[in-house]
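Radical SAM protein (Streptomyces malaysiensis), 307 aa
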Amino acid sequence: MTEAGVDLTILYRGPLASCDYDCPYCPFAKRRDSPERLRADRAALERFTTWAAERTGDRLSVLFTPWGEGLVRSWYRRALIELSHLPQIERVAIQTNLSCRTGWTAEADPAALALWCTYHPDQTPYDRFLARCRELAARGVRHSVGIVGLPAHLDHARRLRADLPGQVYLWVNAAEGHTYTDAEAARWTALDPLFGYSRHPHRSAGLPCRTGASVISVDGDGTVRRCHFVPTELGNLYDGSYRAALRPRPCPLAVCDCHIGYVHLESLPLYDVFAGGVLERVPAPPPPGASWSVGHTASPSIPLWSR
């Protein structure tokens, strides 16, 4: 009996847990992986890439969400290049601090490749980060650029918004544990009209979510869970046992406060807001002549464009 194909979004996170930055709010800052762990991460990623290449009857979208920085490792760059050329891969994206040079993207298919880039003002020279963003734009690589909404980052965010190409979306993540007054939130919303979605955790208990049905989380061993935040196992990717567990199910958690989680809640309109760019956090294209720019605002339900 032939197995029916599926349309599946996969959030992949392997053993890698090291980063070249030392952000004070990150538990993986300046952490160094042992050679054994790096070899295990490389082997796990190559196994996953091989599996994806064999899924010719499926339609796959992949977001790499490593605990740390993946693009400084050659095997992540190679995986992105190889996956981007597979006909069954609709999108392959990665979260990155963009500390790696961007020349490797020329080998990838720009129709499938995308980057989710985060700017850390106290970790990298501004001009270097901006130059790499401009290189991505010049190469036609889909990407979003973002920053953590700490008070000390506001002027950096304003400068970045002014210097980025108008069509590049600048997102702002609410800082963990930080409460924003309405006045503070308004300043961030002037830069990211969708900041309202990040400002407060979303009540999710009992609400329908695409995770576990059309979206799954996979670790380096192939263990499948509905998302990164729910530990219940649904099976294993490599023996196919997860497929019988794919079905709609309500969220078991009280709240969801991370974009890679709540973007999949059916109670929110974010699949429409980010139509065509859910994985890389790129909103649907603006109308002709419009762009993201300083000063334009929107309600949390529908983004407005400046002209």
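The mean pLDDT is 91. The longest helix spans residues 35-54. ok done for today
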